[in-house]
Amino acid sequence: MTTRRSLYFTSPRRVEVREENLPDPAPDEVVVETICSAISPGTEMLVYRGEFPDLPVDSHIESLSGTFSYPLCYGYANIGRIAELGSQVNNEWGNRIVLSFQPHTSHFIANINSLNPVPPGMEPEIAAFLPNMETAVNIVQDAAPILGERVMVFGQGIVGLLTTALLAEFPLTTLITADRYALRQNASLALGVTASLDPHDAQFKVLAKSLLKHGADLSIELSGSPAALNDAIALTIFSGRIVIGSWYGKKPNQFDLGSSFHRSRIKLISSQVSSIAPELTGRWDKARRFEAAWDAIQRIQPQKWITHRFSLEQAEEAYRLLDETPGDAIQVMLTYC
Questions:
Q1: pLDDT value at residue 1
Q2: pTM for the whole structure
Q3: For a pLDDT cut of 70, what percent of the chain falls above it?
Q4: For the structural domain made of 2-128+301-335, what CATH number should be given?
């Protein structure tokens, strides 16, 4: 019987790796041996810090069923090699590299219908960006940028950088980003944005308004900080749009909806990758969005943002880094050699 090593969040700021027995696959299933998995610092930091609400983990993904509660095995960017086939699985699946929305674990069993073959020639670490790239594609589709618009993106973590990279492909008049950490600002500037500002700077709003010619037509909030939504409201012009891709969890918030917002006709748009915007469902499905995300990865080559690699057994160190010194990291990978 195969054993696996799985990462569990056991209490706030505590993780542990547990060894478990893996049953034999059913006839239509396979065993996948993990090569690497990407940590998603936004959502996973909420889990690590115990800031998650009492909600289902993800009702759209079978491997992430259940609710947010400890102990929790979590993660959703797993790249592995198919190591064993069920009796009814075609031999062409043998040894194939696949993406799966699985937690951080060394081995797992899955139906082949839940696996996404990695494009030939793509390195596993690059493929691990696919879930967050799909999120970025979804955010841009919800934002629907228009030629000549002035756009501001709050937060340049990995989802923020991927979103900014997609927006940089549009013929915008202005594209400004905001992040408190120099490492992320520099990564953003390398994408060709107009400017990348520190939201904690005393002159932040004054400078942003000057660069935006009084305000943004479109703002996208991806920082994970509730305070950034107030900045977005303040910097978005009359009848503008704010797309909110952040999940704040249980973080305390006090949104300023009582001053200029009331008369602004600003639209607040919730964006989350588990579904597709209703106005697109006649033409778009998950398969088409996945195809767009794979193509975007090939163009953008996001592996340049991998700053750290840790073995699964070093996961505690990885999460401590993201929790205590987030300005030192962008994308952290777990490896399973």
A1: 65
A2: 0.93
A3: 94
A4: 3.90.180.10
